[in-house]
Every structure is written in structure tokens, then in C-alpha cells.
């Protein structure tokens, strides 16, 4: 079944309205006449990448003839570009596995595949990454939700830690981050400008020495600044711990009482929050229990 809704009887009605024979439609799309007949009878479905060609041959907008629900995932982007898995794989110079694994939510695309696939699909890199998140079951519904998708690139992680992980100290400047990295790993030789480029996303690569230095600068485990291509459950758990405890320090959790009912947070909710804080505090080396 294609990722878009396919109604064979509607295709037949539109085709007849255009005075187009099954054979003519088949030739345009690149299949046989009997194949189109099976589609129209509901005995079979076209591959998703065939739908743009069918809509074009029938002179219909793709979204009108073959609607779909919600924002696109990776499979829909590929199909709407009229590409098969094999063709998409050829574009990135790889086997079918990276494309298939990403579309099925098993393994994220390597960073080097993002730009060529975005170009081939006719979308921005950001739109491709958002579609990838949806393939993995992450479906933001608002701008706030999109902001809270776990950071993946080295720059996103730096910005995340600057926002949530600096409860007990002044927020580090780019120059201070560079100094701490270089003090820990002299061979890194990174500058404040380099840090700024990473945070802005204009640079995405960093050596192992720089990544180790960043973990030292932010007092987090070295694996947090590991590979950018996919987030392991351990990294996701740690980042959520950082976000949660950072929200507590910023007063956002206590603010729930003011925004809630006149009685504030229930005893059960407060107990749940306290229990969660107790479980997560050990995950942040810079947060110390009071004596």
C-alpha cells in the first residue's frame, strides 16, 4: 500500500473523464495495461513512487488525487520525488539498507546522506531531518514541540547544554568554551569563532579531541558528544534528565502551580516529581546534593 491514499475507482473515473485509455496511462507511467486494470479494480496498488507520474498523466494535483494525513515522513518524501529505494540509494552511493532502515525507523541516516537526499527530494535539510524524526515516531505538533526534539548535531548539543546545563555557574561564552577545550586537549586548537560556527550550524564537523574537550568543558560524559547520526537510548535519557533538572532550576516546574488550579500541584504529582528528580540527579555531574 502506498503512503498516500489510493482509490482505484477514482483513478478510473478521472482517466475516463480525460478520455484516456488504460494502455495510454500505463505507457506514461511505465507499467503494463493489465497492471493499471488491477489498480483500478482494487486488486493491487501502485508503488508510492508511481503516484506523482499517475497524477501528472491525469492532470491532477498530487495531494487532491492521492491525499495523505499529517506531515511527510521519509518514505513520503522519496515517493513524492518519484524515486524508488534503489534510486535513492544510488544518489547517496550506498546500498538500499541506509534508505530502508531510515524509512522504517531502524537506523538514522548518516550525516553525509542528508544533503544529497534533501536535494533529490526537493526539500531543505531541515525538512528532511523533520521527516526522518516522523519515520522514527517523533511527531511534533507545535513550534514548541519541534524545539524540544532531542539535539543531534554537536552544535545543537552545545546550545542545549548552554540552555539547560548551567544551573550552578555563569553561562559559558564561546571564548570560555574554546579555552576549556584547549586546556583539556591542547592539540584541538579550537577558537571562539569555531565554537560559534558549530552553534550556528555553519560547521558540523569536529575532531575526537574537540569532542572530548567539550565533554570536559560542560562536565558531561564523553559519549554525549559522540556520533551525531543517531541518538542512543542512553544519550536520549541523559538529555531528558538535563532538560528536566534545568527546567527545575529555571523555575519552570514550580511555575506549574501558578498556572494550574487554585490548589496548585497535587500531593501525588509533587511526590512523582520528587521521585523523578531523585532518580535523575546522579546523571548530572555538576549538580551536587546539599549537605
| Uncertain regions spanning at least 5 consecutive residues | 141-148, 252-270, 283-291
Rg is 25 Å
The main sheet comes to: none
Report the strand count. 0
Beta-strand fraction estimate: under 5%
On the 0 to 100 scale, the average pLDDT is 79
Going by helix content, strand content and strand pairing, the class is mainly alpha
Amino- and carboxy-terminal Cα gap: 61 Å
Principal-axes geometry comes out as elongated
Fraction of helical residues:
55-70%
What order do the helices and strands follow?
HHHHHHHHHHHHHHHHHH
Number of helices: 18
Write the layout of secondary structure elements.
Blueprint lengths: L7 H10 L4 H8 L3 H9 L9 H7 L4 H4 L8 H7 L4 H7 L5 H7 L7 H11 L3 H11 L7 H5 L6 H11 L9 H11 L7 H9 L7 H11 L14 H17 L5 H5 L7 H14 L11
Helix pairs in contact: 1-3, 2-3, 9-10, 12-14, 12-16, 13-14, 13-15
Amino acid at each position: 500500500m502506498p503512503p498516500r491514499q489510493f482509490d482505484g475507482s477514482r483513478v478510473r473515473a478521472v482517466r475516463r473523464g480525460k478520455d484516456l485509455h488504460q494502455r495510454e496511462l500505463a505507457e506514461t507511467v511505465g507499467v503494463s495495461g493489465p497492471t493499471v486494470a488491477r489498480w483500478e479494480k482494487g486488486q493491487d496498488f501502485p508503488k508510492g513512487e508511481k503516484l506523482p507520474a499517475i497524477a501528472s498523466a491525469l492532470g491532477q494535483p498530487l495531494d487532491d488525487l492521492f491525499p495523505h494525513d499529517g506531515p511527510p515522513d521519509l518514505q513520503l518524501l522519496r515517493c513524492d520525488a518519484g524515486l524508488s529505494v534503489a534510486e535513492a540509494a544510488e544518489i547517496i552511493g550506498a546500498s538500499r539498507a541506509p534508505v530502508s532502515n531510515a524509512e522504517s525507523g531502524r537506523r538514522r541516516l548518516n550525516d553525509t546522506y542528508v544533503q544529497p537526499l534533501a536535494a533529490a527530494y526537493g526539500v531543505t535539510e531541515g525538512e528532511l531531518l523533520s521527516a526522518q524524526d516522523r519515520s522514527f515516531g517523533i511527531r511534533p505538533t507545535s513550534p514548541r514541540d519541534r524545539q524540544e526534539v532531542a539535539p543531534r548535531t554537536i552544535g545543537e548539543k552545545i546550545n542545549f547544554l548552554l540552555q539547560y546545563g548551567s544551573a550552578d555557574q555563569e553561562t559559558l561564552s564561546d571564548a570560555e568554551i574554546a579555552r576549556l577545550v584547549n586546556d583539556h586537549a591542547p592539540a584541538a586548537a579550537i577558537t571562539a569563532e569555531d565554537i560559534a560556527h558549530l552553534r550556528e550550524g555553519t560547521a558540523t564537523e569536529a575532531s575526537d579531541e574537540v569532542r572530548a574537550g567539550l565533554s570536559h568543558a560542560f562536565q558531561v560524559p564523553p559519549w554525549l558528544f559522540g556520533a551525531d547520526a543517531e541518538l542512543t537510548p542512553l544519550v536520549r535519557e541523559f538529555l531528558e534528565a538535563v532538560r528536566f533538572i534545568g527546567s527545575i532550576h529555571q523555575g519552570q516546574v514550580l511555575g506549574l502551580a501558578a498556572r494550574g488550579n487554585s490548589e496548585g500541584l497535587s500531593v501525588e504529582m509533587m511526590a512523582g516529581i520528587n521521585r523523578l528528580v531523585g532518580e535523575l540527579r546522579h546523571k548530572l555531574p555538576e549538580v551536587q546534593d546539599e549537605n
